[in-house]
Amino acid sequence: MSADRVRILLVEDNAGDVYLFRKALKAAELNFELTVIDNGAEALAFFQGKGDYADSPPPDLTLLDLNLPKNDGIEVLRVIRRNERFANVPVVVTSSSPSLPSQAAHEHLEVTRYIPKPPDLEDFLKIGETLKHVLFHSRSCPSDAETP
Amino acid sequence: MTKATPKTKSAPNAIRILLVEDNAGDVYLLEKTLQHRRIDYELIRYADGEQAIRAFQMDDFVIPDLVLIDLNLPRREGFEVLHTIRSKPAMTGVPVAILTSSDAERDRHRIAVTGNERYIHKPPILDDFLEQVGRALEDMLAAR
Known about the structure:
heterodimer; A: alpha/beta; 6 helices; 36% helix; B: 144 residues; alpha/beta; 17% strand
């Protein structure tokens, strides 16, 4: 991975989880710029390029919580995957559920990786390394995405 | 998979707080809130409802000064934990609060008919969390 700063979009409504994701990324020693969107409606606007997001460049990585106010994460994922502009953006989906909802597979919504939120702080902070790994692979092999 | 060992933090003359919460971020924020308010606390944390219910049923269970329960828990939901607490005579008089991000009217109604528990909404903004949850905890501790 290059030394360039990576742009990460975090779609997450829980203030504590935002704090921990930021901490996890720092722990992984990533050079990152984090943009946080705390509801599904605004995330949809981002990926549809509406309003203030008309000129926003695609992030290097999107970290998407599923349980969001206004529009849920599956709706956001659907919009991302139907927009060619974001076709190569890795999307890591997270939630407190142990597995990705079957709806994502039914609709063939590609997910780069699913990460259940660990209940313990130490495990949570390890997520940064996983995201670093995803970023590394997405940059070296842009089409190497998997659906679990 | 949750760890069986409750999270404990020691402090002399500390308020013993029992927290049933699966979300690591919310545990972190709650500790930040307690520290922000300079409350000396000992935190015993269970990451799912089943762990908490088993702990309450143990003979050597130590009565806490305050109980905080999240509603949406893995394995056994928060209302089941609440019911177990209320069926334990030794817990009579221990303040219990439901700490949740749910704003659903149905949940508020269920809490209202269950007992005297306080409903503390977890705001999504960090500063609001520190302020609102901190104030609610201080009120509860002052009213003991």
